[in-house]
């Protein structure tokens, strides 16, 4: 019998390598294609995220655009959201026995995080969020034209029927 056919060892002349080479090359080619596909997906995802962020920023700029000639002052804020004295909720005053629920009914300023006290001067914006007058005025003077909580525009501009 022929010894080369009975042996599990590869032939010494290296002829066995030629039979496995196409499989090795196909595997390497597939790995390259998969890695290029993953890089393409990653690049596309990154591009789409950057484009989305750019479009959101552009919309924000358009939304906050102040037409030339408009003068936005504290008087503008006063006309849109006049200052008023805070009055503690009547519901809480009617039920003093519900002391355990008192913390749930307290309103606080989202800027300074202080609880409103009776008769403090506050502003209720058109979106119905409530702030201390000093807090929201400072926010406004920092050139913010949106509510700190919901980002709705609260400054009425000339020619606008309402602030949204």
TrEMBL record:
GO biological process, one term: ubiquitin-dependent protein catabolic process
All copies of domain RING-type, residue ranges: 109-151
GO terms assigned for molecular function: ubiquitin protein ligase activity; zinc ion binding
Chain segments annotated as transmembrane: 23-45
Family matches, as Pfam families: zf-RING_2 (PF13639)
The entry's keywords: Membrane, Metal-binding, Transmembrane, Transmembrane helix, Zinc, Zinc-finger
Keyword field contains Transcription: no
GO cellular component: membrane
CDD domains per the UniProt record, alphabetical: RING-H2
Superkingdom of origin organism: Eukaryota
Database matches in InterPro entries: E3_ubiquitin-ligase_domain, Znf_RING, Znf_RING/FYVE/PHD
SUPFAM superfamilies assigned: RING/U-box (SSF57850)
Presence of keyword Glycoprotein: no
PROSITE patterns: PROKAR_LIPOPROTEIN, ZF_RING_2
Name of the protein: RING-type domain-containing protein
């Amino acid at each position: 019998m022929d010894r080369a056919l009975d042996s599990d060892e590869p032939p010494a002349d290296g002829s066995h390598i030629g039979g496995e080479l196409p499989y090795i090359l196909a595997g390497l080619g597939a790995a390259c294609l998969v890695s290029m596909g993953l890089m393409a997906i990653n690049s596309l995802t990154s591009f789409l995220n950057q484009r989305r962020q750019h479009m959101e920023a552009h919309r924000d700029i358009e939304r906050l655009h102040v037409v030339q000639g408009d003068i936005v002052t504290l008087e503008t804020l006063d006309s849109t959201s006049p200052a008023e004295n805070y009055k503690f909720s009547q519901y809480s005053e009617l039920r003093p026995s519900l002391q355990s629920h008192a913390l749930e009914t307290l309103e606080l300023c989202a800027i300074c995080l202080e609880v409103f006290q009776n008769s403090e001067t506050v502003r209720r914006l058109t979106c119905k969020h409530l702030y201390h007058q000093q807090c929201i005025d400072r926010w406004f003077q920092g050139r913010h034209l949106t509510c700190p909580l919901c980002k709705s525009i609260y400054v009425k501009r000339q020619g606008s029927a309402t602030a949204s």
